[in-house]
Amino acid sequence: MTTHISERFAVHSDDYKHYDTEKLRKHFLIENIFEADTVQLTYTHYDRLMVGGVMPVNQEVTLEPVDLLKAEHFLDRRELGAINIGGAGQVIVDGETYSIGNKEAIYIGATTKTVSFKSADAANPAKFYINSTPAHHAYPTKKVGMSEANVLQMGASETCNERQINQLLISSVVQTCQLQMGMTELKPGSIWNTMPCHTHSRRMEAYFYFNVPTDQAVCHFMGPAHETRHIWMHNEQAVVSPPWSLHSGVGTANYTFIWGMAGENLDYNDMDFHKPNQLK
Ligand SMILES: O=C[C@H](O)[C@@H](O)CC(=O)C(=O)O
Ligand SMILES: [Zn+2]
């Protein structure tokens, strides 16, 4: 069993505008989320949000403390959210087993000592996409399925942005210190997410795109509204959105993505909107 962890420092928007494709990808794109029987993590210095994935195949995979945290247990001063995008799985938290199926989430509170992940069937493994943030209060661990989620219908087919936003780890559903997570599903024929787009300098955000057909891609947009850039993304890749950046994408087919946020305010709606005809 292995943990792969890398560290990403924060970028200033004045620097970002001079980046070429390679440098943009190096600093913002996270290409490898799932590797069999491995904990894959990226420690970002955007609100210290960690982005990663666990895909248990042949064994139970344990979340082990990493040297970067200098903590006895991974979650001593952190909270964690996981959403399963694969087959049926289990998350074992301090000896208690939670069954987490496809599109289901679990919130794991700070001071938890042990966390491990299992798949029900190695031929159809669970894939837990993970976000973890610093936390200074221990809220209870809670499973959140689609029946507990707060579901929003957004957009319209005329503007190619008809989508369902499943707010899973949101303050009306589960108590967290700063983490918010959910999953947005684009309807067939709709390809634009988060359009009209927005910023929220109180919080950073990370997007994880999946259910992207192998011969298709998603063009993700970032930057201040007057200075946008794009990153072409493939299936099961994540992208970090700094507090100064909008985050929106257009696919060559419909797709699904998980959004996760950290920082100030647990108010999902406190966004500053940018109309399409204001973008540059
Ligand atoms: O701050 C909130 C996030 O950017 C996403 O939840 C937006 C989103 O899923 C969408 O509009 O499709
Ligand atoms: Zn946002």
Automatic annotation (TrEMBL):
Cited InterPro entries: KduI, KduI/IolB_isomerase, KduI_N, RmlC-like_jellyroll, RmlC_Cupin_sf
EC main group: isomerase
Pfam families xrefs: KduI
Keyword annotations from UniProtKB, A to Z: Isomerase, Metal-binding, Zinc
EC number(s) stated in the UniProt entry for this protein: 5.3.1.17
GO molecular function, one term: zinc ion binding
SUPFAM superfamilies xref list: RmlC-like cupins
Catalytically driven reaction(s): 5-dehydro-4-deoxy-D-glucuronate = 3-deoxy-D-glycero-2,5-hexodiulosonate
Cofactor binding remark: Binds 1 zinc ion per subunit.
Cofactor(s) of this protein: Zn(2+)
Pathway(s) per entry: Glycan metabolism; pectin degradation; 2-dehydro-3-deoxy-D-gluconate from pectin: step 4/5
A biological process term (GO) from this entry: D-galacturonate catabolic process
Record organism: Saccharophagus degradans (strain 2-40 / ATCC 43961 / DSM 17024)
Positions of Zn(2+) binding: 198, 200, 205, 247
Keyword Cell division: no
Family assignment from sequence similarity: Belongs to the KduI family.
CDD domains: cupin_KduI_C, cupin_KduI_N
Protein name according to UniProt: 4-deoxy-L-threo-5-hexosulose-uronate ketol-isomerase
Function: Catalyzes the isomerization of 5-dehydro-4-deoxy-D-glucuronate to 3-deoxy-D-glycero-2,5-hexodiulosonate.
Keyword DNA-binding attributed: no
HAMAP family given in the database record: KduI
